[in-house]
Amino acid sequence: MSSLNFYHSVTLDLVKCKGCTNCIKGCPTEAIRVRGGKAHIMQDKCIDCGECIRICPNHAKYAVTDGLEKLKSYKFTVALPAPSLYAQFKEGTSREAVNAALHAIGFDEVYEVPLAAEEVTVAIREYLKRNHDVRPLISSSCPAVLRLIRVRFPGLIKNIVPVKAPVEIAGKRAKEEISSVYGIKPEETGAFFISPCPAKVTSVKQPIGTPRSHVDGVLSISGIYGELMRNLGRSGFESIFEKSSGIGIGWGRSGGENIAIGIGSHLAVDGIHNCIDVLEEIELNKLSNIDYLELQACSGGCIGGALTVENRFVAKVKLIKLAEKLGTETRIDENSIVRDFEEGYYNFEKEINPTPSLKLDEDIAKAIRKMEILEKTLKELPGLDCGSCGCPNCRSLAEDIVQGRANETDCVFKLREKVRQLVAEVLDLSQKLPPTMEGQEGVRKSDPE
Ligand code: SF4
Ligand code: SF4
């Protein structure tokens, strides 16, 4: 396995895990194995998509996030609520009420990530207008998709639009404005994302496209939901920041980003397995007639994130209604965003590198040799993809065998074959006569000595 350091939000509770193998087939990157009656997540393959959190019937997978106590580490704190947060409460709950509840549970300020999404919308539009070499361009907003591309489709890294995700821009803007209004240094302000999914937790702890995140912590929507509910209805909070319009709020569901950008031909795909299908098509040079591809790992988009509480279909309706109510008149100054875009404000600051988890070996000659052994091993396996070996399919067992992580006899069919062979050998031995008796008349091979 690679020795690279990976941070992961998605974690296994060994005590709760029953080794039932339900999760191994649902994992889009084949990152889970069950060994010794317990699941094991392969760090270099996991993309923190959260599928296994949804699948596990024993609730053995969970996301590690920050807690409200971390707010105490900062002189000033700002909440960065994801658009999907506003779709988690009963219909009619105003955005102001949710922001006031965030203030009541301990945040000094609230900077809406949907407002930053409106800035990013303009930046992406500009990028699309000025760059025509690569098509389709893929949205950079879903970190699980970015990690998926690094792990399984490294050839498509060039298709990722090199514009920072809204949460990063929200953290940056919030700190700049707090500094100019209150004179508080950016490093004294703690910016906390209120996240619908574990991939966004990971993207803050181990950012992609930037050396350091402007976000200091991540709280899950589900983790603070109870506190927020208890504080809904509080009033008296006035933020210094602008409010988002329906354009930014729409980013919380599949298709919302494309509607906001509104130029060129575009496609919105949600659900990690659908994203994989589409990425495979792009690898085959299909879909080059599409300008922009919005890919979101969660079904329905961020409203379907593993750390939300509301049913994603209900949340979608609520978000659409809220976006309609807020309208499309944005409060951001598009001309100044275009100027910032030209000065590189939204650009990735760091190249995205492939994650070498699929390489069989760093040494090309050894990798080729291992691939040959893998193919040969695979041919000898039954091809049933039954999962009883603890791997998601026969190919991943073959890979594990080649990499020294598993044995051929982990396959029940190969084990049975081996036992049959051993039984045949034992039977054969049981027929054997000592050399002194061999050839004597009247002594049958099966007679006791
Ligand atoms: S689904 Fe996976 S994590 Fe959950 S109990 Fe079964 S093997 Fe363990
Ligand atoms: S979070 Fe996603 S990639 Fe990671 S182990 Fe779970 S299902 Fe697999």
Describe what this molecule looks like in 3D.
The protein is of the alpha/beta class. It folds into three domains: 10-63, 2-Layer Sandwich (Alpha-Beta Plaits); 68-356, Rossmann fold, CATH 3.40.50.1780; 366-431, Electron transport complex subunit B, putative Fe-S cluster (3-methyladenine DNA Glycosylase II, Chain A, domain 3). 39% of the residues lie in helices and 10% in strands. It contains 16 helices and eleven strands. The protein has helices spanning 22-26, 51-55, 95-104, 113-130, 143-152, 166-182, 198-205, 221-231, 246-249, 256-261, 272-283, 312-326, 334-342, 364-380, 394-402, 412-431, and strands at 10-12, 32-35, 38-41, 61-63, 76-81, 109-110, 137-138, 189-195, 217-220, 266-270, 292-296. The strands form four sheets. A four-stranded parallel beta sheet has the order 6-5-8-9, sandwiched between helices. Helix 7 (198-205) links the parallel strand 8 (189-195) and strand 9 (217-220). Helix 3 crosses helix 8, helix 5 crosses helix 11 and helix 14 (364-380) packs across helix 15. The longest helix is centred in the last third of the chain and has 20 residues, at 412-431. The radius of gyration is 27 Å and the shape is elongated. It binds iron/sulfur cluster (2 copies). One iron/sulfur cluster (SF4) binds at residues 12, 17-23, 34, 39, 55-56, 58, 60-61. Keywords: 4Fe-4S, Iron, Iron-sulfur, Metal-binding. Residues 8-36, 37-66 form the 4Fe-4S ferredoxin-type domain. This is Iron only hydrogenase large subunit-like protein.
